[in-house]
Amino acid sequence: MARKRPKVSNRMLFTCFLLAGFILLFSPQRFTNKFQLAFARIFRWPLSISRSLMLSASTSQPLKRENNHKQAQAQNHIANLQAQLESQIAENERLRQFRKEHPLLNAVFVYGDIMQASPTELTINCGGSEGLVEGQFVIGDNSIIGTISQLSAHDAKIRLITSPLSRLAVKIADMDAVIQGSTDGTIKAPLLSRKLYSIKTGQQVFCRPKNALLTTPILIGCVSHCKTDAANPLLWDVTISPACDIKSLTSVDVIVLNKNLSEQ
What we know:
The chain is of the alpha+beta class. The protein is 36% helix and 29% strand. The strands form 2 sheets. The protein has a 6-stranded antiparallel barrel. It has a 6-stranded antiparallel β-barrel with strand order 6-7-8-11-10-9. The longest helix has 58 residues.
């Protein structure tokens, strides 16, 4: 007949453990030290494994943070390079299309961001060190917007075609003329004889080629207003609108012929 296991109540177990705790608490120190050493020897392997896991967890957190920081830096660097690449591809495509429409021989384009702007002048972040010289033509939105008027090694000022100081030789409907900016921000073509010039609204105006600076005609704008000059009925009163919205520009291209570069 199988023996019945004695049934120990929870209260009895609690009382036993409580008594054992009091015994250990009031036991001599030499006895408790031996007990601690015995406990350490018995449970040496579980304790060492637990300690290793704790150390591994404590050291893995800084390593994880450092790896995350380096990964974020790498991702940001890749994003910057991607943006630069896309910008350069777009710029190359724009210049390729411009060269296709305007076959400028022995010419390169120097790209410049606009740093300051006024109704008559722009300042860009490139200058003599990039091959720029005074008088070179400046392009915005595939049209002439002005010329280099002043420069240093790393920046340059552009005199816009709307400046009263700007005078450019042009062609209006295959007829030679000169345009000049005015104080009200418009462009005029003064002293055009009504007898010699047949001017109509909407006719395109092209900048004429100029030795060592421009080898092919490039659009400047179109005739927006044309009537008989009130002060002199023998002359035209002609107003020209730029082909480019200059106020909206953030960058420009300067036409630099190889001859200019070789003279630097």
